[in-house]
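A favour, since you know our structure tokens better than I do. Could you add the entry underneath, on a fresh line?
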Amino acid sequence: ALAAVAEPRRQAGTPSREPVRAASQGEVFAPCQEYFNLELTLLLSAVKSILLDTQYRMRPDISAFPNLAFYRSALKDSESVRCKSRPLASSYLSDTSGNSTAPRSTVFLTHSHPEEPYRRSTVNRAEIDMVVSIVGDLLLHNPTLRAADIGVISPYAAQTRLLRDEFVGGDRRCLAEERLRALLGPTRASEVAHVEVNTVDGFQGREKSVIILSTVRSNRRGHIGFLTDRRRLNVALTRAQDALFVLGNANTLEAAVTNDWPGADQDAEAGLWRRYIGWMRERGLVSAWAQTDWLS
């Protein structure tokens, strides 16, 4: 007997459709990847698709919106995730509505710092500072959390490169370590070189205890390029086991349009971000990033 198992309704079986460059936007995206070879494609075409209806990865706070938006509320949370111990401690995981003091597992951190072009792509340097602050806060308040259990992802390859420059260790100077040394002490700060940084596409099929998603786009026009791809958003929102931080400009994402991305297809859905942020806001899970949160 042979069984083929894959995560349902993500980008399975579909090569990345990102063009090398979208001339109208001047964006360079993550490298295209082939996820399945011909033999596996033929095998899957002959196997009846069965939706596995129980998820064992995400805390319920994290799985709730993806379940609603991508799986038509068909997924169930296993007992193992429903009965997990207290969530990770973080200054950023709080209910801003004042309706609950219960610890949370996810938050959308909104800001107004603009994106900028970088080597024919797009980056947001403010979100890099936000990532460093969140990592430092997590390592400070959770002594048993390993830096290696934190993943930082972004849809944009250029943003990923800058983030890697921030966290890289080895023979190169780790900028994040230097910035966090006063907060964490030299020993704990040295661990940040083990934080994993990758693109959203590169994290398919992966998981981490903590995921920090840098969405990058921040402009007045609602232009968010291939962030309108629902498959990519599905992947991004379903990698975290215990804590998910999403960084972005809520105004830009809620005003998103699809006609600014030449590669838009049937999976492009600009309104999905509006639904997600609205869903998070109703539950007190949208917080404004304060200037005082910045690292000097």
The two ends are 59 Å apart (CA to CA). The longest strand covers residues 240-248.
